[in-house]
C-alpha cells in the first residue's frame, strides 16, 4: 500500500468522502425545496388542506367499514376532502376579521357538521348523527374558545378582556 492510499484510508475513518461516490451534504444556506415551499405557503392555507386530506382518508375508512365498497368509498372520501378543504380555507381566510366567539363557533360548526355527516356513513340514524355532530361541534367550540382566549396576544382584535391590573391604570371617567 502506498503512502497516499494509507493516509487516505486513515483519514476517511468516520467520514464519508465524495471520491467514494457519496454526495455532499447541502450547505446550511440552501433550504430544501420542501422547506422553501413551507416558507412560502402560509399556515392558513396549508393546515386546512392537510386537515382536509386526512379527513378524506378517514371518510374512506369510515365508508368502507360502514359497508360502502370500492370506488364509491373513494368518491365519498374525495368529496369530503374537497368540501371540508374549501370550507376550511374560507374559515381560515376570514378568521382574522371575526370576533373570538364567532371564530370558535365557525370552527365548531365546520367540525361538528363534518363529523356528524361522517358518522352517518356508518349506517346510524339521522337523529343520532345530528346529536353526535352537535356534541362534537360543541366540544370543538369550547376547545377553540379556550385556545383563542389563551393566545390573546395573537388575536386580531387585541385582547378580549383586559387583565385586572391593566384596568387599574385607566382613569375613571369624570361624572358631571
Task: Spell out the blueprint of helices and strands.
Elements: H1 3-11, H2 33-40, H3 43-65, H4 71-94, H5 100-120, H6 126-150, H7 164-167
Helix pairs in contact: 3-4, 4-5, 5-6
Features:
mainly alpha, 176 residues, 0% strand, single chain
Task: Describe the protein.
With 176 residues, the chain is mainly α. Helices cover 65% and strands 0% of the residues. The protein contains seven helices and no strands. α3 packs antiparallel against α4 and α5 runs antiparallel to α6. The model has no long low-confidence stretch (mean pLDDT 80).
| Through-space gap between termini | 103 Å
Tally of separate helices: 7
Which regions are unreliable across 5 or more consecutive residues at pLDDT < 50?
Answer: none
Task: Please compute the radius of gyration using only Cα atoms.
Answer: 27 Å
Instruction: Label the overall shape.
Output: flat
Number of distinct beta strands: 0
The run of helices and strands is HHHHHHH
**Protein structure class:** mainly alpha
Q: What is the overall pLDDT average? A: 80
Percent of residues in helices comes to 55-70%
The biggest beta sheet reads:
none
Assess the beta-strand content as a share of residues: under 5%
Amino acid at each position: 500500500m502506498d503512502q497516499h492510499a494509507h493516509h487516505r484510508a486513515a483519514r476517511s475513518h468516520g467520514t464519508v468522502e465524495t471520491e467514494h461516490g457519496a454526495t455532499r451534504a447541502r450547505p446550511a444556506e440552501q433550504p430544501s425545496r420542501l422547506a422553501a415551499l413551507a416558507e412560502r405557503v402560509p399556515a392558513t392555507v396549508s393546515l386546512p388542506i392537510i386537515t382536509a386530506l386526512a379527513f378524506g382518508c378517514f371518510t374512506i375508512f369510515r365508508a368502507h367499514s360502514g359497508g360502502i365498497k370500492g370506488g364509491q368509498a373513494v368518491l365519498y372520501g374525495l368529496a369530503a376532502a374537497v368540501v371540508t378543504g374549501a370550507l376550511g380555507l374560507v374559515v381560515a381566510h376570514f378568521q382574522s376579521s371575526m370576533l373570538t366567539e364567532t371564530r370558535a363557533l365557525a370552527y365548531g360548526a365546520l367540525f361538528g357538521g363534518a363529523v356528524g355527516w361522517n358518522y352517518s356513513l356508518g349506517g346510524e340514524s339521522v337523529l343520532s348523527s345530528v346529536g353526535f355532530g352537535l356534541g362534537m361541534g360543541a366540544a370543538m367550540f369550547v376547545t377553540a374558545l379556550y385556545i383563542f382566549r389563551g393566545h390573546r396576544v395573537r388575536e386580531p382584535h387585541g385582547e378580549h378582556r383586559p387583565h385586572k391590573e391593566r384596568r387599574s391604570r385607566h382613569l375613571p371617567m369624570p361624572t358631571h
